[in-house]
Amino acid sequence: MIATAEDKIQSLGIWHGPIDIAPLVGGITNRNYLVSDSGRRFVVRLGSDIPIHHISRVHEVAASRAAHAAGLSPAVIHHEPGILVLDYIDAKPLSADGVRDPAMLARVVRLVRSCHRDVAGHFRGPPAIFWVFHVVRDYAAALDAGGSRHKPLLPSFLDIAQRLEQAAGPFDIAFGHNDLLAANFLDDGKRLWLIDWDYAGFNTPLFDLGGLASNNEFSEAQESVMLETYFEAPINDDLRRRYQAMKCASLLRETMWSMVSEIHSDIDFDYSSYTNENLRRFESAWQSFRNS
Questions:
Q1: If you average pLDDT over residues 172-176, what whole number do you get?
Q2: Which residue spans of the chain are classified as CATH 3.30.200.20?
Q3: Contact at 8 Å (CB) between 166 and 249?
């Protein structure tokens, strides 16, 4: 597989001389490589559409271009079916511990708010939409059809998703990143960057905030700081409950994403353990929401 990937990269007509190719660690929907060419470095992402996960590479390219135009993300250098070439940013990905640092959290939240405020104005082409409750229903159908070992949980998941959708409204709409893992934030020592726009699309801002908190295991106090920083105001009980509903929905979607990946992905990753961890966190968040 590595040889095939390197052949694809070598064959691109954009290089100015002999290139060096090195695989990059991470990435569970793409295979990523660092390419050095005549003193410049680039990131090459190899990955086709993944309909089971609602990933469209056309939408990813459009979102990546819009995010660069908004000043959030590196430039798109080249793309063709299955291949995306980005300018390389000499920066380190954040960890969950790093995101939770108070000073860094304030910077991260400002970047997320900029995404919601600025990217849509630069986005071109057919609308990209990410609606978590549709995703959950579609995942449930895929798990049922695929004979997943998790089939007994599906009726409960669908019932909970319906309750969460009712509790989370009314909905504001913004352009969301929808995959706010710590590693998707890069710190170059001067500023933060936001990368990997596979799941980007119009959504409620509360989904990104819920995902940011759940992916990085915020405490209740850190969640309050995040919300007050984002909205620049104290948070009332209604908004807090709507946020908590979207946080639960984010965890449910991540859990089901991993369940679907267990039976559909060919990437070498321990999806079973990832499922178990996210299921534990989802069940905890759901119980907390029910008791609030």
A1: 97
A2: 2-87
A3: no
Residue in the structure block whose two tokens are 């405020």: 117
Mean pLDDT of the chain: 96
Q: Which residues touch 130 (CB under 8 Å, ≥6 apart)? A: 54, 176, 178, 199, 200, 201, 202, 203, 207
Domain 2-87 has CATH 3.30.200.20: yes
The pLDDT tens digits of the residues spanning 240-257 come to: 999 999 999 999 999 999
- For residues 223 and 213, is the Cβ–Cβ distance under 8 A? yes
Superfamily for domain range 92-291? Aminoglycoside phosphotransferase (APH), C-terminal lobe (3.90.1200.10)
Confidence of residue 263 (pLDDT cuts 50, 70, 90): very high
pLDDT in tens, 191-223: 999 999 999 999 999 999 999 999 999 999 999
CA–centroid distance for 194 within its chain: 10
Q: How confident is the model at residue 135 (pLDDT cuts 50, 70, 90)?
A: very high
CATH 3.90.1200.10 in the chain is located at 92-291
pTM: 0.95
